[in-house]
## 1
Amino acid sequence: MSTPSVSAELAKFVATFRWDDVPEHVRHESKRTLLNFFSVALSACFDPTIQKAAEVYGRFSSATQATVIGRGQRMDILAAAAINTMGANVFDFDDTHFPTIIHPTSPVAPPLLAWSETEKISGQDFLLSLILGMEAECRIGNAVSPYHYARGWHITSTCGVFGSAMAIGRLIGLTQQQLVWALGSASAQASGLVETLGTMSKSISMGNAARNGIVSALLAQQNFDGPAKPLEGVRGFLNVTADNADAQSIVTDLGKRWEVLNNAYKPYPCGVVLNPVIEACLSLSANPELLRHGLNKIERIELTGHSLLRQRTDRPHILTGRESQVSAQHAVAVSLTRGRAGLAEFSDEAVGDLSLKGIGAKVCFVDDDAYSVDAAKVVVKIAGAQPIEVMIDMARGAVGRPLSDQEIEDKVRALCAYGQSGIDPEPLIQAVWALDQSNDVGQIMKLVAGAAK
Amino acid sequence: MSTPSVSAELAKFVATFRWDDVPEHVRHESKRTLLNFFSVALSACFDPTIQKAAEVYGRFSSATQATVIGRGQRMDILAAAAINTMGANVFDFDDTHFPTIIHPTSPVAPPLLAWSETEKISGQDFLLSLILGMEAECRIGNAVSPYHYARGWHITSTCGVFGSAMAIGRLIGLTQQQLVWALGSASAQASGLVETLGTMSKSISMGNAARNGIVSALLAQQNFDGPAKPLEGVRGFLNVTADNADAQSIVTDLGKRWEVLNNAYKPYPCGVVLNPVIEACLSLSANPELLRHGLNKIERIELTGHSLLRQRTDRPHILTGRESQVSAQHAVAVSLTRGRAGLAEFSDEAVGDLSLKGIGAKVCFVDDDAYSVDAAKVVVKIAGAQPIEVMIDMARGAVGRPLSDQEIEDKVRALCAYGQSGIDPEPLIQAVWALDQSNDVGQIMKLVAGAAK
């Protein structure tokens, strides 16, 4: 019996699956994730990482085909896709595919959006390519998890290049064989290290994932060949970057299970394990009893949750906004004090707010692995008073308690304002919800062009 | 005691080492390797892999700053560096750093050559940058060998990006800190899989190594930051891509041992383990005794050598020129029959020559690990006659028996003719030997521009 080729089977699925066969709730989820993508991309238009990258990438842009979101700037499709991917991910506030912790939309949507400015693409073709690209990306991620990330691979970057290649490959009509070759050229370009997290160079591999996926597809269109089994081959992507990779899982139930349904959108710009803690603290910030005593009377703030909560977020001494995104001490202090938990609350400015340090110092952890990572209990102890307790069984933003359409819209509005591009988010929101009816997706990019500063 | 930072120490060396302190034989070797680089780059100008890559990369080239060797074509420095790197390596006929099997010059020389077309660079600054870039590249390769390649990483691609980044970083005068950041952005872009060997997609990661090294250096120049320990960090390049990496070796005896001296140039476009076999067969092809009997009288051709010879080259059934480069059966047959062993003898055309199959079928192997990989014995057995035997103790092209300057010049002449660019190699050869006296390296690229076809 010959070994079935996983790469070929995946390529066949990407080449042939039809929009008509995509379930309605999967279609709708693809619009939700696109809207969430725009929210985060619009938040970072003028972030220093994006500014510097745009300066260098702009020097080597060959054309002005495609919109760099929010900056009033146009570049060729490779550079625009790279910068837009970096922007959507720079705060790690983009979507999260829970089984892998991939941020799947960031490396896939920007290539498709850039391409749709070069020719007229229908909303259905666009969304189908987005869904299939994300499906390939997340399934490859599943096959190498959890070893791959634990080893030190930045999984969104390494798997993102496959998502971009498959999405663009489908959009431009590659054959099954050409899609296998595109997987091969993508496999040769898969890179990104966990060591770079928290620094600007994390964004390089993100931008490359988007950019190099496009290049892989365009080379394949020229019949630029690659190995027969780029994924499952003896020295292919799966075996080289993971021990005990599960190649077969990539093609099990294709078209039946959809990974986009395992994707969730963050309500707060923080590590997802902080979601229930922040939700509890936002509720406490308006608690009449606590307001009557005043925050300065707090003696102790006890966080009970899964041990991962403590392991990943017990960071009392932080210096930057980026570090604050994974600091329980900061998250508790800022959300109790300000009653908000947006990007401004996890910025360098917020970390510099010395009034928060005293409250953060009251935080302590109680490990209880009976809690899921979506749950937490926060108990505030005040001298001479009853403890005040808030229990969150399943936080907003969990796969089981996703943000509503309305909440995603509000995230677009809030992050668009934060990014200071001056863009009106309302026409964008309307356009994304109606995208499956559009006959020219590229028009949407006019709504997010913005102006140079 | 704080852990010494390997990345910082390497960066300091690259930032500060002076031309005056480079030993004369190291300087001379840098010119030899550059000449060898031009020979292979000129051989491949119109190879199908390069044609297709140039078509796609050319679409996204922003300028005509830099020469694409031999094609009468100019692109921006990123695209030109990528294509020239692909060209120099496409036949695997470029230099070989024996401890790692890295082809070190291909990803480092093209970025420097492209840059030297954008501003006036002296020959000494150029050669120093080349030497330092190769040194960083090969030392990082040493630190992850042999695990890294055995795991499936295409080591020239993965380490080449560091070489390019350090070479360009030195040329443009980055500080030590900026060079550490450049190592960080390079680490995020290190990719390339052994699975792609023998296909066009191998060339993608090679081109990326050159291209992305430049990008890493230019971003660092904008203070685009990265991790403090991109190489030796817990989730940095060394630990993620190798078990038991020897980080400290990267900085041991910097400026005292030179890796360019462990680099050798191939006399034949084949796996280096075939060198002694081919040398023996070329000698046999002119053997009067064998000529008198005729090749059709051969009963058996016995190859005695290190077991790696058999393991890597026992390939009787091959279909392409690329496969023939690692087939002992083909190498023996073609060099005995034609008395030559150049690119033409390892092309698709040569593999299609059915007269060779009969001779190849007579080949058998005798493993003897007392042989070094640079040695082999070839015994030809003819019915009713004494066996004819040739022993090669150390093949041409070994580090211990390097090609002479004259032989490298002849390689330039032969490969330049093979590539059919119409370029006159003589002024190029003269210019490379005199490069340390040049005040404008970019001029050399006019000698290899060629004409479009």
Note: Chain A has two domains: 6-265+402-446, 272-392.
## 2
Amino acid sequence: MAQQHPDPTDPTAGVVTGDALAGYLRTQATEFLRALRLHRETGGGGSNGVEESVDAARALRRSARRISGSLHTFRPLLDTTWSEEIRPELAWLSGTLALEHAYEARLERLLVALHRLSGSTAVPAQAVGAAVGGHPSPGASPERGNLTVGAAKAGALLDRQLTLARTRAHSTALQALGSSRFHAVADKVALLASEVPLTPTAATTDLHPLASAAEERLTDAIAALPLVTAGHPYNAEALVHGLSPDPSPHPQDGPWHQVRLLLRLHRYAREVLHGTEAPVDLRLLTAGQALNRHRDASEAAAAAAQAARTPRIAPATAYALGVLHADQRHEVEAARFAFEQCWQKQTVAAP
Amino acid sequence: MAQQHPDPTDPTAGVVTGDALAGYLRTQATEFLRALRLHRETGGGGSNGVEESVDAARALRRSARRISGSLHTFRPLLDTTWSEEIRPELAWLSGTLALEHAYEARLERLLVALHRLSGSTAVPAQAVGAAVGGHPSPGASPERGNLTVGAAKAGALLDRQLTLARTRAHSTALQALGSSRFHAVADKVALLASEVPLTPTAATTDLHPLASAAEERLTDAIAALPLVTAGHPYNAEALVHGLSPDPSPHPQDGPWHQVRLLLRLHRYAREVLHGTEAPVDLRLLTAGQALNRHRDASEAAAAAAQAARTPRIAPATAYALGVLHADQRHEVEAARFAFEQCWQKQTVAAP
């Protein structure tokens, strides 16, 4: 992928055509197959196997998202039937593979927050699990000593529930990777690595208009966000409905999640145009991190609220989960503020 | 009190002497006696009596605080024995009178927060009590409909506990106002209204050095506050120790409460120098409001935590109280941010 034209918004920039798209898709497909091979080799899991297997699953998801995203953005340049067949399958695959890691990260986030709320500092992630997971070890006792009964019980409850969910997600992912459905996707990606089904005119079509359309969808969605409110610190918006009887009380998070996905599509489109080796736009990186934090805190808050609905828990446990829920909803608000700061500052600073 | 010199920091300003202090103390003593008369007339409580009685108690506290504060700041200019006798008595009086109003305001703050957290908007304070207090009326049902069982039970529990505390504080205040201890204070204040026990040299002593010392104590205390942290929105400091096993987990609030008192002393010293009719410094007003909000939110958070320790409450109630506690601790953090913004902005803006 020779990339002479680093700025897609530069009107004097030359043409990057469907050929570059084909090259990008072939690269991602090759990455996918490499990750798949690695996953099969490590999936059985020896002593180092677990970590390598996690890396492989992450790499699989990474390339699956990029293939799927590019098919979406550059849809008109690709064979429609093929594209419409493979996209939902890639989404299913990356969604299934993402769950295990998501549950693990959610548990870690919540346990670290519980320790912060209990006033203990700099708790190593591993010690957290040991300290609150109901298996105290002599080394973990200083951390445990700082937890109230409520915080310790809340931690143990979350540990139980999210570890169970993670284990189930792990089994589901293993089943998925052994399924005929998966083999059909893998075969399609293997074909993609050698031959990309472009439309007859795609090879000479400029990619910029479709990439710009993806960027416009992003900027339109950002313009519709309540950024003025988000830019006022401590606006207390994220916790409104925190005690609402509505079982899904946070529709306010939806538009932010949507912007997170559109930002990702925009980033992938930039990779197609500029090459994967081009330096990452710092603004997009920071904005993306804020939106990831928003999503993670939103889901962690929901997990704390969900755990509080467990029958027959002690009031002290429920109280700790309430504090934890509110804490994570404020993380949601903080992430919106961080996004607003990074986005607005650079919009103003741009020439 | 003729006031030719509006700026106590202006080195060219002329001298304001102990005469001005005597005038100020006489005025405040007269206010105290007027408020006391009004309180006695309305204390029995007819239909309008309650509100007037509340106003009278507020006016009593207001002048008691000003007399006590001025005696502290300008201590060297006043008869020591007299001053050391009357100050703790005035502090006891204004403390006793303040409690009833404090419990009432705390309950209102917590009920309004519960409604906000339940997603209902613009709830009139009176409707709140009716909606969550366990006495639903047809008019209050829309608000009640938006409360979960947990939020409604938490509201009812807080209503019960803080109303009981308020009732007790009311009785204590009435007893105090009928006590011989109170009559001794009132007699002393009555004497003060006609004759202020200045030291022999006070009448010709410049008040500025003592007023400046009060201001320095304020600026020193502010300099010791963690303002850099407070100026970073969403620093999550206020909720650290939110689940600490320590029964008084918020020593971090102490220095802010102290600044609130020093700010008040500084404001009273300015009143002595500039007269009570001089316009209030907007910065001091805003800073004082932020510190009041800090104190109120800190105490409301403690009341929610305290209510959660009630034996045999339902988990849903405890969960709602946990969310409420965290919400008020974030109000604490927001108040610190507001203080930092108002204080730093004007420090920079000052010539």
Note: The interface with chain A takes residues 114, 116-119, 146-148, 150-151, 233-234, 236, 239-246, 249, 308, 313-327, 330-331, 333-334, 337 of chain B (CB under 8 Å).
## 3
Amino acid sequence: MPTRRANAPKGHRAAPDCGTLRRLKPDTSRTVYDGRLFDVTLERWGEHEREIVEHPGAVAVVAVDREGMVALVRQRREAARKELLELPAGTLEGEEQPLESARRELAEETGLTGGTWRELAAFYTTPGFCRERMHLFAAEGVEHGSASPEADEELELVRWPVHDIADRLGEIEDAKTLAGLLLYLRETV
Amino acid sequence: MPTRRANAPKGHRAAPDCGTLRRLKPDTSRTVYDGRLFDVTLERWGEHEREIVEHPGAVAVVAVDREGMVALVRQRREAARKELLELPAGTLEGEEQPLESARRELAEETGLTGGTWRELAAFYTTPGFCRERMHLFAAEGVEHGSASPEADEELELVRWPVHDIADRLGEIEDAKTLAGLLLYLRETV
């Protein structure tokens, strides 16, 4: 999951359209940090201020091949100071639709393509301070090919039998991966 | 069980031992944004830069009372531009230990105290760009009291029967809450 921003606009993005809950907007909003990978916005909401990491949105995939193996990627996570085992995932680029982005990220990171896709869930990763909304997909019957990760990604593809997932959740230290695998198990196994 | 490396040319490092946490550190690191709620650090790792949101860590609680009701809080999430239904949660303060912090946050946000506690998991919420590590607890048999939320928190306590959780996961749009409820169901129901 590259953390760079590719074609995402620098300015404020509209919140994604996702449901029937009450719409809200700040009194004022200004960019207080214009970063390389993300910006930070300071918003005023009545008496309170909110400092928010701008993010274009993201995707993650529970991809299972015809042998019943789920694909994970092990990668160096500088923010965590360690390597983590995660679902293939990435950031929405430009005007990409989530499903299109998810197929692209899965192919780039693992070489897996094809299969039957469905959306498992959509959620905010850290709604207390970040705009990131993630779309989570399941892809079943995917086929193996050649990966082509980003230059700054060092990925190791790891395959687990789906039926081992439940016993190996303790090896997962990433929120989207826990949520994704658990949702998949609940619906499938 | 690693099967193959995804990017052969760049992956010259040795594969990590399974389950061993290889410690890593950047070549250089500097604060590029000194914020009100969080800072941003720019780290250099060889040829690559990483922009990282600094975060002290966090806690979340699946709290179930003696009537078998799980406690959720509905609150305005400015970053999401809507209200979300989430597990009681909060940020580690000072030298607080995670369990101590979780008990404090639960009491402040919901008035619930006591009960039998255990840690369900610990995970990074967004390891691609943020340091936040979250400790997730289950607290069973908690007792009702008076809440005392922060001045800038507008919280509504929502109670669901534990046995309704599985059918209502579609109402949850927050990663930690999905992961927490699913882990709890898996271990308990």
Note: Residues 24-54 of chain A form one domain.
## 4
Amino acid sequence: MNQENQLIEKSLKIGVCQVELSLGDFDANKQKVIDSIEKIKAENPDIIVFPECTLMGYYPADLLERKSIILDQLNVLKELEYYLKENLNPGIGIFIGGLSLNPSLKGKPFYNSAFFWNGSNFETVFHKTLLPTYDIFDEARHIEPNPLNYPQTLIWKGHTILVTICEDIWAWENLKGQSYYPENPLKHQKDSVDLIVNLSASPYWFNKQKTRLRVISETSQHFEAPMVYVNQIAGQDETVFDGSSVVTNKEGKPVWIGDLFKEEFKCFELDLLDKEKKQNLSKIDLPEVHIKPDTEEQLYEALKFGLKSYVHLAGFQKVHLGLSGGLDSALVAQLCVDTFGKENVTCLYMPSKFSSDLSDKIVKDLKNNLEFKYIEQSIQAIFEFYIGEVSTDIIPKAFGLTHENIQARIRANILMAYSNSNKSLLIGTSNKSELAVGYATLYGDLCSAYNPIGDLLKTQVFALSKFLMQEKQGLTSEVIKRPPSAELREGQKDEDSLPSYEELDAAIQKIIIKRQAANTEIEKWVLTKLYQTEFKRWQSPPILKVSQHAFGRGRRMPLNHKAKS
Amino acid sequence: MNQENQLIEKSLKIGVCQVELSLGDFDANKQKVIDSIEKIKAENPDIIVFPECTLMGYYPADLLERKSIILDQLNVLKELEYYLKENLNPGIGIFIGGLSLNPSLKGKPFYNSAFFWNGSNFETVFHKTLLPTYDIFDEARHIEPNPLNYPQTLIWKGHTILVTICEDIWAWENLKGQSYYPENPLKHQKDSVDLIVNLSASPYWFNKQKTRLRVISETSQHFEAPMVYVNQIAGQDETVFDGSSVVTNKEGKPVWIGDLFKEEFKCFELDLLDKEKKQNLSKIDLPEVHIKPDTEEQLYEALKFGLKSYVHLAGFQKVHLGLSGGLDSALVAQLCVDTFGKENVTCLYMPSKFSSDLSDKIVKDLKNNLEFKYIEQSIQAIFEFYIGEVSTDIIPKAFGLTHENIQARIRANILMAYSNSNKSLLIGTSNKSELAVGYATLYGDLCSAYNPIGDLLKTQVFALSKFLMQEKQGLTSEVIKRPPSAELREGQKDEDSLPSYEELDAAIQKIIIKRQAANTEIEKWVLTKLYQTEFKRWQSPPILKVSQHAFGRGRRMPLNHKAKS
């Protein structure tokens, strides 16, 4: 052992700051960094790790068109630098995520970077190599990748630290040998590594956690080094970021998993030497923790978190929705009450002559159980007035689709009027199964500022509702069991126009989510409907994404085309 | 001169097929290829060049999620191969664009390729190197780039032909030394090249042609070789592809420029030798042609072409719109009549008590001049019925924004009812200046299936209208000169809520189109309004793109953020 090694501590203490960040709110994010350091510094960490794009928040999307915004962020980084110089013990190293300028005139204008505070400045900068360019992510639009083979390590207190940013650890092959990336940049790292850090902004979806843990473990195992993976918390438009940060031991076993949708500030002393012995658990004996399977409870947390973030960031405190007597709107009513409190939720029931007694009863029961503000406003007279007033060149005499749609659009007018007069956001109630086949009225029941259940298949709506019925006072078995109906004409039932929801959802899973070819009659019918109704989804509100493949901005189908498979 | 060179013809005859393609319509596109070859083969071309993605059409966007579609396209390529084997003189080489499979399990699943028909098969395949990933284009989502340094040439009849696909020629630095790409793949081509072909799908925008010619000339000059650049014609959702194909001589001067929005089938005999002498014009003496500056007439052609393509591809023959008495809807009425014929256009005038006598008169004059089908349907009684019927918790007594919006939404209900009952598509009338600052009612006047003027600034609406007034019977000076107003309340004028349109448009040019920082008070006001109203544009209909930076799918701003510059 040479002299240098004798000076090296066998362990490093790492601080994890799983923080909630706000897109473009540089001052608030800077203050969050300062407050986090204040919280954690008493434990004397050697290194503190923050999530990706700490000061900017993530995902900025086309805000990256505007260089002025990146310059603002770099100014705030300078302010942070002054603060740290004045206030922090220089023995603490800090990783902060952020955008940096590509100094070349060629290539995309920015890098997605990790700035390292070395006790006196942020001059050591690392760049992200793999740029997610799929689903909602378009990093290749604005960001230049770090060149392969560009060094990604630094030495701190004698230890070699590999710095990775989010996607950089996602090129490992899956079980089928597939990878999104032709090359895995981590395989170019030839040096021995003592610790891996990953600054992340990784969105939540149901049942993702096991995949995320697989790539973290694989990275940690590859280098035989512990890993500290720090993910942000955020509700950004259609996407929620859940935290669930991870620390592994050098065997790649998770020794800590952060909570979902809650900030975490933790220090871990990690054993970084003893490579020769390859001990499973080192002198700092952190026991392995096990992932729990994703639950309905977690899914509901994701819905509440995403909805609350959207509404509050948009500057609203109050929400409202149209109750139909059906399950989708009943579930959204429960969700809104659980998210905002009954005093901030108004439900409007807008019956017509096609509304059934059962709908009336269900709505009254929900009102009694959930105690939201309630307004009943019939649309029947307005509907009849339209028919009497408007030329038969526009609304023909024979009852048909025109009449069905007008009812849905009168309801939308009333709901939007309530928005205007009460500074309340309209919350949507269309599920993913309906959206897939366009079983909804554009400018009618599709209207809303935000749709929190637009990524739930109808079968998931059933399952979540059953879970909630057992947990809470609210939904009744009546609303769960009734046959779904739009109630826009006499005796209408969803099942007259659609396959059973079990069959429909199985087809959607196969052809939309797994993107496989349509083979059966039902699958072909779903694909045809999907293609025919793209124009409705184009003009639909943002959808809270809780699956790997949601409708919304992450899906960009052409409107006019003749493809058939 | 060796024996091989003695056999080489000094010239090659190249056939250009500037064809209109239809996305995903494999059979139609295959037939188009066959018909084009039949048209042109009597001239004995040595090579025929088709546009990018010939069989698929372009831009497929997330259709590329579906491998089944690519397999369909490859099957049709096989069918074409059989046809050519049976029917074509083997001395004709053909370049066809299309998607091919990435055989590796790693990286994105497809290549964007050029298949070369060598007289017996399509086995020679080239891949696109530079993948446009900006604005409406997301090629890096699904497509793997050709590796740099991978050969891009083939020898045909003794001549070395460099094969490029669209974006491959766009990495030349601009006048400021900037390039979207860190490396220009063309600079890696060390071999002498006799001819360059480019299979293209390059969208139209106003004043683009000079930029396009610059990169074509620069490529041709770099290799001191003639170039054949073949662009498709298509109206695909928000984008129009104009053709305007180009042939240059070996000095990089254009010797032919194809027409806009019209198919072209031309043969050119190009001098490929005499490199030593560097003669400007060779024995095949094609004179240089000059670009004409873009005109209002061309812009109007683009609008008509895009609108017609959208409506017909969506399966509709008839269109309708709401006439307000203002200039935007008057221009759209003229556009629809010129595009579809007066017998296929219905204009609905839906006055309220706020509609002025001037609006009445303008609408009557338009009706007389353009002779569209006309329906007048007052909204006043319906509006008053809403107020009498709906609870004051929803529509308060004091006249305000709620009341303004309801009027716009009643009109939308009527226009959509007309859609339902007459199988007619609703055409939008919102201009880019209004859209930028959200001066429009969501689910009201923003409703339409397609907005053909959503990428025209109000000052462009004025200029185009003046041009049309001189050319045609339709628009009157009265409608051009009147002060713009939404007429949703007493005495309302746009200028009470907005800066003058000259100032507004200058600010939009600077901060939205050129993406510069906002400095003046008006620019800051526009930026604030832009950010506040993103939710309206998120749910807006598709917009016909005629500028470099349109609202619509090519712009992906977050909804909630706190950025201020």
Note: Chain B has two domains: 14-293, 299-494.
